[in-house]
Amino acid sequence: MKELTEQQILSLAPNAAAAANGKKISQKGNFVKLERSADDTFYMGECTGSGKSNYVTSADYINEASPVFRCSCPSRQFPCKHSLGLMYEMLANKTFNICEIPDDIQKKREKKQAKGDKANGVEKPESEMTEEEKKKAEKKQAAAAKASKSAKTKKLKKQLEGLDLAEKMVNDLMSAGLGTMGGAALNTYQELSKQLGDYYLPGPQKLCNRLIIEITAFQKDNNESHYDDAIDALEKLWSLIKKSRQYLNGKLENDNVELEDSLLYEELGGIWKLSELEAIGRSKKDANLAQLSFWVTYDEAGKQYIDTGCWADLDSGEIYLNYNYRPVKSLKYIKQTDTVFGVAKVPSAAFYPGEGNLRVRWEGAQIRDLTRDDCCKLRSFAITSVKQEAKAIKNILKNAMAQPMLIKLVAFKQIGKISEGFALVDASGDTILLGDMPLLEETIVRLSMLPDSSLLNDQVLLAAFYYDRNTRRLLAQPLSIITEENIIRLLY
Description:
By secondary structure, this protein is of the alpha+beta class. It is built from 12 helices and 17 strands. Strands 6, 7, 8, 9, 10 and 11 form a 6-stranded antiparallel beta sheet that branches. Helix 5 (131-176) runs antiparallel to helix 6. The protein starts with 5 loop residues before the first helix and ends with a strand.
C-alpha cells in the first residue's frame, strides 16, 4: 500500500476548496469500491455523486513523482474532488482489493511513453534499422540541424537590431535628460517598448517598461524615489545592452548559436527546457529541498504575478528560488502555486544560470513532512558572522543583472529593538539593521507578534539582504525563523 501524507495531497490539489471537498467525500464514506494493482502503481475507486451513475476515479503512479489522475465526472479540475477523495482513502489506510491494471490504462501509459520518447528525440534503435532507414534518419537529422542553426542565427541578428533601437533611446535620454520622457514623448517610448518584444528582447523590454512606469509616477506626485528608481532602471538597461551586444557578436563571430551556460541567454529571449539545463550540467538528481518561505508579488513592468518559493537544499545548504509566472491576460489558465510546509523529494532539479540565489525548477515531486533532523541541518548551514559576509553580499547586489536581494540563513544571538527599529546581533556582537523591502510584504511588524519571546534569542533567521537607497546601508528583511523543531514563517 502506497504511503501518503496530507501535505502531498494538498500540494497536488488545484485549490484548498477542492482538497476540503475531497476530504469530505472520504469522511462521508461515499466510496463504494476501492481497488489497487499488486505493484502499487494504480489505484481506483467508485464513488457516489450527484449524477445517476457512480463516478470512477483513478490515480496512476507509474511515474511516482508526477501521478496522473482520471475521473468520469464532468469537472475540469485535475485532480478533481473525487480523485482527491481517493487519495484521502489511501491516507486513511482503507482496504483496497487487488485488481489487474485495466487495458485502457496500459494503452494510455504506452501512448504517453511514446509521446515522451518523441519529444526527447528517441527513435527506433539503430540496430533495428535497415540501411535505407539509417540513411533517411541521418538525412533528416542533418536537415533539422541546418534549419535550426539558420533560425537561431537569424534570431541573434534580429536581437542585435533591437539592441540598436534600445541603445539609441538610452543615448537620447542621457543627453536630453529623463524629464524629456514626459508628455507626448511618452507615447514614443511606449511604442519602442512594444517593438523590443518583436526583437526577442524581453529583458530590455521589461526594463524599458519599468523606466516608463517610474517616470509616469514621478510626473504625477514628484516623489524623488520614483526618479531614483527610473535612474536605476536606465543604468541597468544600459549595462544589459552593452553585455548583450558583446555576447551576441561573440556568438556570431564564432559561429556558435548553441545553448550556453549564461544568464544572458534567458534575458535575451531564450526559454530554457529542463532537458537543456540537464544537458549543460545544471541539474541534480534526488534533491531534497525544504521550503522556507513563500510570497506573491505583482510585476507591473511585466504585467504578471509571480509566485515565489524559497527553498534550501538539505545536502548543501544552498538557497534557491522557484518561480511561477502568471501573466494578467492568462490568469484563468495558470494555477497559482501555494505554500509547501514540508520537504520536496525531487527526482531531478534543474538550476538556471546566474549568481546569488539561483532559480530552481523541476517536474513532479513527493512532499514529506519536515523533521527535527531537517531543522538541525538547516541551522548548521547558517552563517555566523554578518560582518564577514557583508562584503560578498554587497558585491553580488551591485551586479546590474542580479536580483535586488540575496537570501541567506543567519545564526543570531538576539533580535531586539533599537532607536532605528529592529536589529540582529550575531555571536560576535556585530549588528545589522532589519527593514522591509519595497517589493515584499512587511514582516518587521510580525516580530512583535511572535507568541514566544525565546524565538528572538539564539535561533537562525532566513534573511533577505538588500541595499536601502534612502539610508545607503545594507539591510535585511526577516522571512522565517528556524528553530530546532520547526520553521516559523513571517512571510508565507
